[in-house]
Design brief:
The protein is an alpha/beta fold and 282 residues long. The protein folds into two domains: 2-173, Rossmann fold; 186-277, Pantoate--beta-alanine Ligase, Chain: A,domain 2, CATH 3.30.1300. Helices cover 40% and strands 18% of the residues. It is built from eleven helices and nine strands. The strands form two sheets. It has a six-stranded parallel sheet, with helices on both faces. It has a three-stranded antiparallel sheet with strand order 7-8-9, with helices on one face. Helix 7 crosses helix 8 (151-163) and helix 10 (200-214) runs antiparallel to helix 11. The N and C termini lie far apart (46 Å). Bound molecules: pantoate.
Length: 282
């Protein structure tokens, strides 16, 4: 595996692979790998001739009061993991090489970015869409793989790739969970032992709604109350950021569940912000 820091170098290598008709997979990450990242790398490896993993803690997607400086990092361990999983290139650029001091061009998908995580993180998806577009230009991948835990990110990237005609297939892979249901996230490292014990109830609350829908309850106001009761009783260290029932593709709110619906939520703890989602289809 080559560790490449220079964007022009990664682009030149990937363009020559394209000329050789080799199929390239890209797994964009911010590092501190867990089994969720590993599932993306394994699937990327399986579906391509060349696997490029990017590791870049993208400053543009963090708000001024967010955790950019303390975002968990372990480059040595990440290098070992990417190598073990068969990456051909681990692309680890410096922020200054990705964003010139007078960087001024941004990619936005406003329609899908304002709701859910976009309410408390107003510039987040602009930063994500911009860096992913840049990675697509540098790596020219045939496929790019993302986790479904960041469902909103996935639909935004898909829309961006379609609207800007990137010749790439966007693949979303299922959420990987701990045994107790907590969705894997690099930010789980921020949880105190007590918060970690309660955190699986974020998911369990959402699962409760799924069970109620199977039993015939479709009014989302009623379901929302049931989830909030569950959290109040079991996740006292969490504070709701949002809890939404939305159409999975256009992210518009759903009031009565009659088709595929995404139940998405975010919770603050003292030092972390956790997100999760489940699908409901009556
Ligand atoms: O999901 C992430 O880790 C990041 O948002 C991504 C897609 C790597 C862009 O920085």
């Amino acid at each position: 595996m080559d560790i490449v820091r220079n964007p022009a170098e990664v682009q030149s290598q990937c363009l020559s692979w394209r000329e050789e008709k080799l199929r390239i997979a890209l797994v964009p990450t911010m590092g501190f790998f867990h089994a969720g990242h590993e599932s993306l790398m394994m699937e990327g490896r399986r579906r391509s001739d060349r696997l490029v993993v990017s590791l870049f803690v993208n400053p543009a997607q963090f708000g001024p009061d967010e955790d950019l400086d303390r975002y968990p990092r372990d480059p040595e361990q990440d290098i070992r993991t990417a190598e073990r999983l068969g990456a051909d290139i681990l692309f680890m650029p410096e922020a200054g090489d990705m964003y010139a001091a007078d960087h001024a061009a941004w990619v936005e998908v406003p329609d899908l970015s304002a709701s859910l995580c976009g309410c408390s993180r107003p510039a987040h998806f602009r930063g994500v869409a911009t860096v992913v577009a840049k990675l697509f230009h540098l790596v020219v991948p045939h496929i790019a793989l993302f986790g479904q835990k960041d469902w909103q990110q996935l639909v935004i990237v898909r829309r961006m790739a379609r609207d800007l005609a990137f010749p790439v297939e966007i693949i979303g892979l299922p959420i990987v969970r701990e045994m107790d249901g907590l969705a894997l996230s690099s930010r789980n490292a921020y949880l105190s032992p007590d918060e970690r014990r309660q955190a699986p109830h974020l998911y369990k609350g959402l699962e409760l709604a799924r069970t109620m829908v199977i039993q015939g309850i479709t009014d989302t106001a009623f379901l929302r109350e049931a989830i909030r009761r569950h959290w109040a009783e079991n996740f006292s260290l969490g504070r709701e950021d949002y809890l939404s029932f939305v159409h999975p593709e256009n992210l518009r709110p759903v009031e009565r569940i009659s088709g595929a619906t995404l139940v998405a939520a975010a919770m603050f703890t003292l030092r972390a912000r956790l997100i999760d989602n489940v699908f409901i289809n009556p």
